[in-house]
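Moderator note: this is an archived Q&A kept for reference. The question asked for a predicted structure of one protein chain; the sequence and the answer are reproduced below.
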Amino acid sequence: MANSTASRWMLYTIEIKDEEETIKAVKVMNVGDGKERELFRDGEKKARAPFEDISLLVGSKPPVLSGNGRVAVFSLSLGEPANILDHYLAVVNTDGTNFQIIPFPIKALEGKDLKSLEFTGGDWERVSNYAVSSDGK
């Protein structure tokens, strides 16, 4: 939970079960009045190149809320057929505006001695940890 000048906020991931499948969503709730907003739901957005037409899913890492309660950050995974866990980072204002998807391409690691880090396969390109500043910038 994070403090805001007006109230306290809670950011969480929820599983939604229907008759055939279970999907996940990221929601934010104003603890003071109980109002909640859904920020993202499995499959509502598609990935960009080179993964066009592959659905984005809520990732495996817990979502993080800025100290002022205005910005949420969470990981996104690629759905079938790619099935790549935590490949993107989503950054969105908690009012639902300014939704950004940040990729972490392999180019970011060019020049690193990956063998010394024991990275041997091509499927490890994923977000492992993240944080957000108090003001969400």
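Archived answer notes: The chain has a mean pLDDT of 81.
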